[in-house]
Amino acid sequence: MFQSFEVTSEKSHGPDRVERLRATMAELNIDAFIVPHSDEYQNEYLPERAERLAWLTGFTGSAGYAVILADAAFVYTDGRYRLQVKDQTVADVFETRDSMKTQGTCDINNWGKKAQRIGVDPWLHTMAIASQLRKDADKQGAEIIFVDTNPIDAIWHDQPDPPKGKVSIHEQQYSGVSPKTKLNEIGKAVREKGADVTVVTDASSICWAFNIRGHDVVHTPLALAFAIVPAKGSAKLFIDPDKLDMKEHAYLNQLCDLQLPENFIASLEQLGKSESKVLLDPSLVSVKLANALEQAGAEIVKGADPCRLPRARKNKTERKGAIEAHKRDGAAMVSFLAWLDGQPASDLNEIEIATALEIARIKTGERLGVPLREISFDTISGAGPNGAIVHYRVNTQSNRQVNDGDLVLVDSGGQYDDGTTDITRVIPIGEPTDEHRRHFTLVLKGMIAISMAKFPAGTRGVDLDILARKALWAEGLDYAHGTGHGVGSYLGVHEGPQNISRRSMTPFETGMIVSNEPGYYKEGSHGIRIENLVIVEPPRPIEGGEIEMHGFTTLTLCPIDRRLIDVSLLSTEEKRWINAYHSKVRNELSKLIDDEDTLHWLEKATRRIKRV
User: Domain spanning 313-603 has what CATH number?
Assistant: First the structure.
């Protein structure tokens, strides 16, 4: 099994750890300390060593931060984790707050007057965040203190060692472009920005640029490293040599100058001494690195990571790989859903459901000759009220028995050599209620609206987000998460810069993959989310129109449960979309299924909806 259901944090440790942290803060002469969910690479998913927020508070979500003062402690997170953070933290110690209401900042304006010296680990905050912290602190007459040693590390006596996952080569048959070509293009982008060199800290960008994958982060094939790529000349890659076997060492050695990680800061200082102009992405690069460069004399040129847009625009090989990966993943999903439909509720719990799905992916990959390399994140298997916890992670303590009348929300994905998948389906156990059908259909209308969208060049996620919410808003309902996130190619399941949300300002371009996943969550009752991955099509003329338009092609192939659809709420066009989608699902997946019972289930699950 790739997924573990062990309890990974214990909130009862929080009070003691906070008091120990406060004692260390007093020794450092700081009045407050900010604990982000972050590491020095600004990853979303962290190696165990960097899970400081979870260790301190008990909260295990992938986004958030804590603020510890002498007489108060706060945990901030967004709407995805509103229920989870309250359940995982000790209410007498931690006050939970919504970071969406504070525009994602640490809300210094609310507590800054209590703290004149605010401690920050400069490795864990980006240049952009550090700049905002300074501005907010100045308003309160406070000072940001960059600490040399993280005080949590000083009290976390059994902190895990840094990861040493082995690196593998991501062959060109999957990447489509050689690393030499990519590095040359990065160098060209550096020159166009008027810089001499760029520092790349995003592990996804490094893996993409060098055509490597790693095992340093659970479920995401990242090799944690830093790189310096000049406008002209050879790149430097700072990576632990223990991660490289002979083949991988030889491969990378002919691409770049391999360096030890402990030489990284010295190399930045050397750039400063040579008065280099260094391109840095303020949203990705830690303030620690920017400070090291500036103090040594380098000139900082602010600009986007030159890998991000090329990585997001999937080339022809990556697009083909994504299509094939989703076919296999769809066959696995059908096998799983057919099995689930045959089980009595009394025999099911959330862990058994997640386990069965992972086994289906493994067996399908083996049968079709392209193995599942990993799951792309811990499967969200939420029955009944647990489905309303947006990023619920089942463990041995929370594992819920399925009851007749429950909705089961299953959000999952796979990592394959040729693509990364992410899919959410909701399954009724027994007869769904009229309320279940109404909520499901309103969410479905939003998902269809995104699927059918046509839009001109320059359209951003913020421009499309309302399409997914329109039907829900009309009924006074909404959801507290984005509508879609970017997805990598055998890389991160959450990967920017493109997304669909109220804050997304990146224009969509041909080849970008993004999720399409509106939802609705009724606390204490049920959760609904329907998710497909879609890819941006090239712009095409519209008959009778004047402007070429982009659109989306849906990659995900899996039935949408017809038992939950209130057909009376759908337009003729929406019914036509569902029928066409199910016809494609049936035609594509029936070729990959060798079990007669599963084929019969697929045929039934994809029957046409009558246009009543």
Answer: 3.90.230.10
User: What's the CA gap between 411 and 355, in Å, rounded?
Assistant: 13
Which pTM was predicted?
A: 0.95
The 10s digit of each residue's pLDDT in 428-457 is 999 999 999 999 999 999 999 999 999 999
Q: Which of 202, 282, 293 is nearest to 495 (CA)?
A: 202
Residue extent(s) of CATH 3.40.350.10 domains in the chain: 11-155, 168-311
Q: Where in the chain do CATH 3.90.230.10 domains reside? A: 313-603
Residues 501-520 pLDDT 10s: 999 999 999 999 999 999 99
Nearest-5° angle of CA 37, CA 503, CA 222? 40
Closest by Cα among 200, 221, 170 to 492: 221
Q: Which helix (H) or strand (E) holds 209?
A: helix 203-210
Q: Read off the amino acid at residue 419.
A: G
Show the beta-strand stretches assigned E in 176-240: 197-200, 212-213, 226-230, 235-238
Please identify, in words, the CATH class of the domain defined by 11-155.
alpha beta
Partners of 280 in the β-ladder: 302
CB 606 within 8 A of CB 586: yes
Complete edge-to-edge strand list for the sheet that includes strand 65-69:
95-98, 73-77, 65-69, 32-36, 117-120, 143-146
84: nearest Cα among 393, 500, 401: 393
* The CATH number of the domain covering residues in 168-311: 3.40.350.10
Alpha-helical segments (H) within 475-595: 572-589
Interatomic CA distance for residues 61 and 51, integer angstroms: 10
Average pLDDT, the chain: 95
